[in-house]
């Protein structure tokens, strides 16, 4: 392994972390404000990717696809909110889990009917194609750099929204003490629709951006959703800052683990054993990380409520 | 969970055994025992194999009901135990050990160990975090199975044959296998029933309703939950062993997270916290799956909304419907 | 003076910048009924939580029967004989009154890791539970689910649960809160009958009850103990009169 490979993998890890953050942010806010666990949040990510495919097919332009896919993802999210999720807020977590599970089954299958089960793809737009030379012998795809940049931009915007605006203040207060916020006369349902729509759009955005580099297929949101859960649990439920840091951590650990676990294992055990154990260990790393964090801090690294 | 409380209030615990409470399980088990005889008139092997499959999932559902219905632990990673049990059977077979008792023992032990380790971490957290963490650990098991290149990786592992019992190929016969599975189901059911009524189960049920109160009278709440979690994992491990033997195939798909969701659906469909309800739920779910998937390729597009409607409007599951009452709410 | 059952020294708790328990020291002697009074928000319930173990203390030491229990979790403190009643009634609503108490007996006597045998029919557990229910005059309601008992009956049930633990110390957080006049009189009579048999730390707003029952009274204001002594001395204490009793009288 070389330094360049290492740097490339760090960038890949960051890029995965950014995507994870975009999905986890909406999830953790929705949970923080409404105490609502939405398994179907990953579906928003998948829909974003499929919408990018569909609108690219219609317009032939990636930029147009992004501009059309985002509001459509938002609309679909709000539609789900009105039809299903809204009726689940005062139910217990078990009901929420079951109903949103039903939504996932439906949408994954509907996507199969509309677009088929085979993986689809969107070409990388011309402007962002090619690779950038970062240093001697180190080239990195421009598009992936663009994802990292766009993600950081969105994270910055989110930080400003949450910390610098009135809605953001309400969201933070709601995550800490929801009954108090509604006692202050805030229409918590409307607040939630805003938060929910925003979260759905972030996840959709992640899906749109992932469409050119990952295969777009049914169920792609579920895997990412579970990773987002790991992120939220590590970061502390309801905490945006925690979600951001934990997302980068999980992205890096997972990516670096997959690239280097076998090599590292070769230092410890025989090469053939390392080839067998390495991949298994790599796939366990983030969960071991999660277990470790929980062991020492059951409420995560940055618990939102402030009380441990 | 006020719904459980309302349900518990309706059934005082000290009254002598209600004959009706015995009637449902007796009917269910009698029907399962007689199924092969009835099947003799029709497509025997199909009915036997579907029946065994239903019972195998019923065992897993019962074990989930023990922690979900009686312990209020919403585990979204229960399919992992099904998979671990199955892999224990498959790997032992691949390594040349084909004795059923050894296989089942290994399946139970491996599942128990996984439950102990992951449960120890998960149970320290509360509510929704528990759901996410069990889901995450389940996914971990799934990915590890995928990376076991020596044992088939993502393609899965075909078993040379079914396990042998005392050196004899008894399980090869579908009828024998059916009754072995039935015996395992009856055993799991009776075991869970005993556990729930015993001191341990009483503490577990009381903790479900008021954990702080129970800690204040001296119960180690986390430890009791953990032990229940491990018992449930071990029973589910047994069902995994049976599943591997039935299909003579082991695959990471056994522990896909959707499978965990389906197990929860079975328990809820049957009405949680009644054990026999878990059996009914498994029967209902798998029959529904069987029927719908014969009718159309994309049956989930119907089943998904159906599930949403059931959650929103029909509360209390099948046993609730049978009792003629709606869950409160 | 005999070795105290409970001894707090320098116990503190803060939530962020808010100091809720500020360097609290107090003792409860064997057989003593020690009352803790103070205006709303003085930190009485927080202190009870710290003693019972449902809140960890930031500083200080809590001794119980000669042991340092500062770091013990709640259930271990309970097993040592520290029984509490809750400010907001806390019973297991779906279980009968008898089973609520039997659960306490079960926790104390022998293992709860028994997986066979019907616990609800264990005669030894039920007999002791019934005895505790008789003490609080609730035996007639033994089979009623706890969730369906009246508020006063739930209060009495909490006491029965605590007594069934064969406690060395009763930690009672406003046992009279929310009860009607008649029920409250019954509870006072019950507490009077328990007095001397158990060491009791009582938090209560009913001043009549406190001054008629307590051997010793400590006054907690803004998390600090400002006065401690015999009822008459506390009643006469000018700080207490100004800061607390004065308000009550006004």
UniProtKB/TrEMBL annotation, chain A:
Membrane topology, record value: Multi-pass membrane protein
Superkingdom of the organism of origin: Bacteria
Coiled coil: none
Subcellular location: Cell membrane
InterPro entries given in the database record: ABC_transp_permease (IPR001851), BCAA_transport_permease (IPR052157)
Transmembrane annotation, as ranges: 6-29, 36-56, 62-85, 97-118, 138-162, 191-214, 226-252, 273-296
Protein keywords: Amino-acid transport, Cell membrane, Membrane, Transmembrane, Transmembrane helix, Transport
Family the entry assigns: Belongs to the binding-protein-dependent transport system permease family. LivHM subfamily.
Protein name (database record): Branched-chain amino acid ABC transporter permease
Protein source organism: Chelatococcus albus
Automatic annotation (TrEMBL), chain B:
Name of the protein: Branched-chain amino acid ABC transporter permease
Keyword Lyase attributed: no
Lipid bilayer topology: Multi-pass membrane protein
Record's keyword terms, sorted: Cell membrane, Membrane, Transmembrane, Transmembrane helix
Transmembrane stretches, start-end: 21-41, 47-68, 75-94, 100-121, 128-145, 177-198, 226-244, 264-288, 300-323
PANTHER family in the cross-refs: ABC TRANSPORTER ATP-BINDING PROTEIN, HIGH-AFFINITY BRANCHED-CHAIN AMINO ACID TRANSPORT SYSTEM PERMEASE
Higher taxonomy: Bacteria, Pseudomonadati, Pseudomonadota, Alphaproteobacteria, Hyphomicrobiales
Main location: membrane
Keyword check for Cell membrane: yes
UniProtKB/TrEMBL annotation, chain C:
Gene3D superfamilies (UniProt xref): P-loop containing nucleotide triphosphate hydrolases (3.40.50.300)
Keyword field: ATP-binding, Nucleotide-binding, Transport
PANTHER family the record matches: ABC TRANSPORTER ATP-BINDING PROTEIN, CONSERVED COMPONENT OF ABC TRANSPORTER FOR NATURAL AMINO ACIDS-RELATED
Residues in coiled coil: none
Organism: Chelatococcus albus
Family designation: Belongs to the ABC transporter superfamily.
Residues annotated as transmembrane: none
Name of the protein in its database record: ABC transporter ATP-binding protein
InterPro entries, A to Z: AAA+_ATPase, ABC_AA/LPS_Transport, ABC_transporter-like_ATP-bd, ABC_transporter-like_CS, BCA_ABC_TP_C, P-loop_NTPase
SUPFAM superfamilies documented for this protein: P-loop containing nucleoside triphosphate hydrolases
Domain ABC transporter intervals: 6-247
Pfam families per the UniProt record, alphabetical: ABC_tran, BCA_ABC_TP_C
A GO MF label: ATP binding
Keyword Transport: yes
């Amino acid at each position: 392994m070389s330094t360049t490979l290492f740097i490339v993998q760090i960038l890949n890890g960051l890029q995965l972390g950014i995507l994870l953050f975009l999905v986890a942010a909406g999830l953790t806010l929705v949970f923080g404000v409404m105490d609502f666990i939405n398994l179907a949040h990953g579906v928003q990510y998948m829909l974003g990717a499929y919408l990018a495919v569909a609108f690219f097919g219609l317009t032939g332009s990636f930029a147009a696809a992004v501009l059309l896919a985002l509001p459509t993802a938002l609309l679909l999210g709000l539609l789900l909110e009105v039809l299903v999720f809204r009726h689940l807020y005062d139910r217990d977590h078990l009901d929420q889990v079951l109903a949103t599970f039903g939504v996932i089954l439906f949408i994954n299958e509907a996507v199969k009917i509309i677009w088929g089960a085979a993986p689809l793809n969107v070409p990388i737009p011309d402007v962002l194609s090619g690779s950038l030379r970062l240093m001697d012998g180190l080239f990195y795809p421009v598009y992936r750099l663009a994802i990292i940049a766009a993600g950081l931009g969105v994270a910055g915007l989110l930080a400003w929204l949450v910390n610098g605006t009135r809605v953001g203040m309400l969201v933070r207060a709601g995550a800490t003490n929801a009954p108090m916020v509604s006692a202050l006369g805030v229409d918590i349902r409307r607040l939630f629709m805003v938060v929910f729509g925003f979260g759905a759009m972030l996840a959709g955005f992640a899906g749109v951006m992932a469409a050119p580099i990952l295969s777009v297929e049914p169920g792609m949101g579920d895997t990412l959703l579970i990773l987002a859960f790991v992120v939220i649990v590590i970061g502390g439920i309801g905490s945006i800052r925690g979600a951001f840091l934990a997302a980068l951590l999980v992205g890096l650990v997972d990516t670096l683990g997959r690239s280097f676990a076998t090599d590292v294992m070769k230092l410890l055990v025989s090469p053939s054993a390392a080839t067998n154990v390495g991949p298994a260990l790599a796939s366990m790393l983030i969960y071991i990380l999660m277990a470790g964090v929980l062991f020492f801090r059951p409420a995560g690294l940055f618990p939102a409520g402030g009380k441990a | 969970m006020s719904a459980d409380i309302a349900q518990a209030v309706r059934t005082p615990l000290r009254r002598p055994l209600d004959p009706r409470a015995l009637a449902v399980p007796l009917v269910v088990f009698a029907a399962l025992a007689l199924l092969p005889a009835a099947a003799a008139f029709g497509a025997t092997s199909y009915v036997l194999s579907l029946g065994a499959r239903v019972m195998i999932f019923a065992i897993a559902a019962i074990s989930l009901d023990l922690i979900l219905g009686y312990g209020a632990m919403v585990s979204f990673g229960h399919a992992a135990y099904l998979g671990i049990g199955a892999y224990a059977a498959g790997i032992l077979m691949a390594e040349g050990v084909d004795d059923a008792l050894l296989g089942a023992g290994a399946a139970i032990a491996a599942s128990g160990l996984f439950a102990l380790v992951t449960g120890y971490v998960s149970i320290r957290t509360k509510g929704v975090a528990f759901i996410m963490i069990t889901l995450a650990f389940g996914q971990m098991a799934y990915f590890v199975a995928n990376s076991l290149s020596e044992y088939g990786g993502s393609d899965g592992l075909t078993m040379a044959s079914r396990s042998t019992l005392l050196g004899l190929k008894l399980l090869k016969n579908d009828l024998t296998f059916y009754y072995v599975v039935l015996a395992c189901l009856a055993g799991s059911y009776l075991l869970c029933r005993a556990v729930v009524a015993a001191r341990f189960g009483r503490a577990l049920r009381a903790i479900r309703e008021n954990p702080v109160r129970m800690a204040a009278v001296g119960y180690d709440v986390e430890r009791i939950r953990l032990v229940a979690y491990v018992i449930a994992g071990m029973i589910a491990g047994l069902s995994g062993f049976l599943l591997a033997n039935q299909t003579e195939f082991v695959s990471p798909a056994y522990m896909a997270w959707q499978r965990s969701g389906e197990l929860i659906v079975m328990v809820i469909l049957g009405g949680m916290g009644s054990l026999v309800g878990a059996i009914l739920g498994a029967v209902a779910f798998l029959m529904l799956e069987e029927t719908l998937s014969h009718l159309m390729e994309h049956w989930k597009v119907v089943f998904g909304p159906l599930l949403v409607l059931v959650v929103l409007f029909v509360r209390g599951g099948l046993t609730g419907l049978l009792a003629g009452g709606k869950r409160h709410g | 003076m005999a070795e105290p059952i409970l001894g707090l020294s320098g116990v503190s708790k803060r939530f962020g910048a808010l100091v809720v328990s500020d360097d609290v020291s107090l003792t409860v002697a064997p057989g003593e009924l020690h009352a803790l009074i103070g205006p709303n928000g003085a930190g009485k319930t927080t202190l009870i939580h710290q003693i019972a173990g449902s809140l960890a203390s930031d500083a200080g030491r809590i001794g119980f029967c000669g042991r340092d229990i500062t770091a013990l979790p709640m259930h271990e403190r309970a097993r040592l004989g520290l029984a509490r009643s809750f400010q907001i009634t806390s019973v297991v609503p779906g279980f009968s009154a008898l089973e609520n108490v039997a659960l306490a007996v079960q926790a104390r006597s022998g293992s709860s890791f028994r997986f066979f045998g019907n616990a609800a029919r264990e005669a030894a557990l039920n007999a002791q539970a019934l005895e505790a229910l008789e003490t609080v005059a609730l035996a007639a309601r033994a089979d009623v689910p706890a969730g369906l008992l009246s508020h006063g009956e739930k209060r009495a049930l909490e006491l029965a649960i605590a007594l069934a633990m064969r406690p060395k110390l009763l930690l009672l957080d406003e046992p009279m809160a929310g009860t009607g006049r008649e029920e409250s009189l019954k509870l006072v009579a019950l507490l009077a009958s328990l007095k001397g048999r158990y060491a009791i730390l009582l938090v209560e707003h009913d001043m009549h009850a406190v001054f008629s029952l307590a051997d010793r009274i400590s006054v907690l204001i803004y998390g600090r103990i400002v006065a401690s002594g015999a009822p008459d001395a506390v009643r006469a204490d000018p700080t207490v009169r100004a800061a607390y009793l004065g308000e009550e009288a006004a």
